[in-house]
Amino acid sequence: MSASPEPGSSAAIEQMTADLRTTSTDVLGVPHDIAEAAAGAGLQTATGTIAFAGQYASGSYSVQFNAQNGSGYSSSWPQWAFALAKDALLGNKRVWVASNGDPFGSNLVFVLVFA
Questions:
Q1: Cα 68 from chain centroid (whole Å)
Q2: Could you tell me the residue ranges of all domains in the chain?
Q3: Range 10-113 classified under CATH 3.40.50.300
Q4: How far is 53 from 38, CA to CA, in rounded Å?
Q5: Longest Cα pair distance anywhere in the chain, in angstroms?
Q6: Which of 22, 44, 78, 98 has the greatest count of CB atoms below 10 A from its CB?
Q7: Are 110 and 98 in contact (CB under 8 A)?
Q8: What pTM was estimated for this model as a whole?
Q9: Where are the alpha helices (DSSP H) in the chain?
């Protein structure tokens, strides 16, 4: 018997959304089933835009995420999330982020870029 992933972990959301089929109309925003899975995992989610993405001389990555509700969050993001934020910024795309708490870099569980 395999152990269940800890709620709020990226493994939990990956397990809940594995091989998930959605209708084509769902991909215009956050697919309902994935949003429910994220909420079920105890994650906070928000959609929004990236205002800036850059790198400090120290090597850490800085990102400003502006949520659709008007809140802004500036913090150091891990490299995997920074790469997605940079792509979203350069492509003028919206993102959907999930986190354990406010969407600061240290709390991120996933970052998805909208088409």
A1: 13
A2: 10-113
A3: no
A4: 25
A5: 47
A6: 98
A7: yes
A8: 0.77
A9: 10-17, 32-40, 79-90
